[in-house]
Design brief:
Chain B: Keywords: FAD, Flavoprotein. Chain B: GO terms for molecular function: FAD binding; oxidoreductase activity, acting on paired donors, with incorporation or reduction of molecular oxygen, NAD(P)H as one donor, and incorporation of one atom of oxygen. Chain B: Pfam families: FAD_binding_3. Chain B: It comes from Pseudooceanicola nanhaiensis. Chain B: Its cofactor is FAD. The complex is a heterodimer. Chain A is globular. Chain A has a domain of about 35 residues. The two termini of chain A are about 20 Å apart. By secondary structure, chain A is an all-alpha fold. By secondary structure, chain B is α+β, with helices and mostly antiparallel strands. Chain B has three domains: about 240 residues, 3-Layer(bba) Sandwich (FAD/NAD(P)-binding domain); about 90 residues, D-Amino Acid Oxidase, subunit A, domain 2 (D-Amino Acid Oxidase, Chain A, domain 2); about 110 residues, Glutaredoxin (3-Layer(aba) Sandwich). Chain B is about 25% helix and about 30% strand. Chain B contains twelve helices and 28 strands. In chain B, strands 2, 3, 9, 10, 11, 12, 18 and 19 form an eight-stranded mixed β-sheet that branches. In chain B, strands 7-6-14-15-16-13-17-20 form an eight-stranded mixed β-sheet, with helices on both faces. In chain B, β14 and β15 form a beta hairpin. In chain B, α1 packs parallel to α8. The longest helix of chain B has 25 residues. Chain B is globular. The relative contact order of chain B is 0.12. The chains are: A mainly alpha, B alpha+beta. Chains A and B meet through α2 of A and α10 of B. The complex binds flavin-adenine dinucleotide. Flavin-adenine dinucleotide binds next to α1, β10 and α8 of chain B.
Chain lengths: ~60, ~550
Amino acid sequence: MELTTTPNIPAPDSFYAELIRCHEGLSDDESAAFNARLILLLANHIGDPEVLSEAMRKASLD
Amino acid sequence: MPLDDRYRLAFRLYPYARSADQDAAAPVRHPVVVVGGGPIGIATALDLGLQGIPVVVLDDHEGIGQGSRAICFAKRSLEIADRYGCAGPMLDKGVVWNLGKVFYQDRKIYDFNLLPEEGHRFPAFINLQQPYFEKFLVERVREAQADGAPIEIRGKNRVEAVEVRDDHTILTVATPEGDYTILADWLIACDGAGSPLRSMMGLDFEGRVFKDSFLIADIRMLSESFPTERWFWFEPSHKAGASTLLHKQPDDVWRVDFQIGWDVDRAEELKEENVRRRLDAMLGPEVDYELVWSSIYTFQCRRMKAFRHGRVIFAGDAAHQVSPFGARGANSGMQDADNLGWKLGMVIRGEAPDRLLDSYHEERAHGADENILNSTRATDFITPKSKISHVFRNAVLELAERYEFARPLVNSGRLSVPCSYDGLSLTGEDALPGGPARSRPGTPCPDAPLGNGFLLKGLGGGFTILTVDAEAPETVTEDGVTATRRAVSAADDPSGALALRYLGEAEGAVYLIRPDQHVVARWSGYDESALRAALRRACGKE
Ligand SMILES: Cc1cc2nc3c(=O)[nH]c(=O)nc-3n(C[C@H](O)[C@H](O)[C@H](O)COP(=O)(O)OP(=O)(O)OC[C@H]3O[C@@H](n4cnc5c(N)ncnc54)[C@H](O)[C@@H]3O)c2cc1C
């Protein structure tokens, strides 16, 4: 499997708003913890080690 | 320097006795001298002695040290000890556990059952105080000596200086009755993490220090008995430590590890009232216990660049050191002894070239790297090194409480398993299509039931041609080295484990197995020239 880098989220604006809303009222530390939990959940859902490595590389903006 | 003990003894098993070497007109030369009578030195001496090779062990104490060190001995160590003939008492004395609990802050987040695989003579590991493990090894030496094994253990013999020559070393040894000199064709340095020999030879020991200390308390429970489980707390609300581990040992003794930070006043922390304060916070006021032993450790992960320096070979903690999470110290050292014994034996007997011993470094340094990697990962999880690493660690714990997926990410030490020598110099071909991965060339043979016993019993010592529902000659001799056939059939194990572990999808198989029970190569049928080539290769002749 390859990492999908073309648009794949059906309603981008509402996803984005939902993501930001999750952080409302959170301190920086709580936000960081939330993000970590979210990444772990998504990473497990993806599972494929190659896709995960590719995503980590791309996230580093390498 | 006076010959004072650096630690208290649990068992005084080899009191100082004057040796004839001390009165010899000229220094006596020995085939093998082992420096250090810890578990690895004694195991190495046993391996060689049982082959009939004379070996002298020098230790600066008169017995086995007291104190809180290894408690977790893995299956592979027991299998090796079984080859030496002393696993029985270890298994009898050791505690077997399968249940564990993981706590985070003030709550239990999950429990687990290790669900051990059936069809092995030994459990995945046992908990046993290191002094017992060592005592059983020394007792086996005594038994072997009685049967004529040429092993000698000299207590209160401290190596003070070493002079390294091309084909031998010269040792200055201090005793209560003064110094003497001996020569060794081969010197095996098993003198522990602080290896004086390593320093005398000016050799490196590079790696990483973990900026944390651990207070380790062994306690005997006097009140109600605790369950035989492993409990691990991350950031417990009792605050007795940043993390805490509770583990059962024989004799109703429990091991408690408190992670207490880097900048600590050791003397202060080790005062009984302070140790008790932590224990009481964790156990609650109603639990009554007796303090058996406590100590503070800091941990490092490091290894020597080269384990072999000509006629001097390093093994155990002297060669490599890991943090104890995952119990890889003594366990990997036992594999060093297992690996070195047969190779040195063959070289001394002239059956294999000297370069066979280079493969000792190749294989065991590979093992050390794997162990360091694993124990570093566990240490990084237990004591996160950055803020974000701490955030992720706690996120894993939070999720693990609710969702099973996060539990495999929780790392409080991965169980020590032996490494495989895939693709290294001595490892041969895999010509068994459909063969199971777990017995591929390079791996230590997995155990399996066989009739009323087990496969590993009686495997090793020499080279073995293991045939599983296949034909092969009873012996094959190549350049002075004989491999002897052991014929088994999948039908010998109604449970099917033997077939699953050695045949996979194949109908029959021929394995060439080393004296340390690692697979050299395997085929779907007997092929004389392939087997001879593999045998040469495994002896360092290719
Ligand atoms: C807290 C803790 C927990 C651990 N838990 C585990 C575990 O659960 N499982 C595991 O596998 N490992 C564990 N280990 C690691 C284990 O204790 C070591 O790996 C093991 O003791 C190494 O054995 P060794 O024979 O190489 O060295 P040592 O046991 O250190 O023996 C070295 C010997 O050499 C002697 N010596 C030193 N200098 C000289 C000299 N100049 N002349 C003569 N003799 C000398 C010493 O007195 C000693 O007897 C733990 C360690 C610690 C500290």
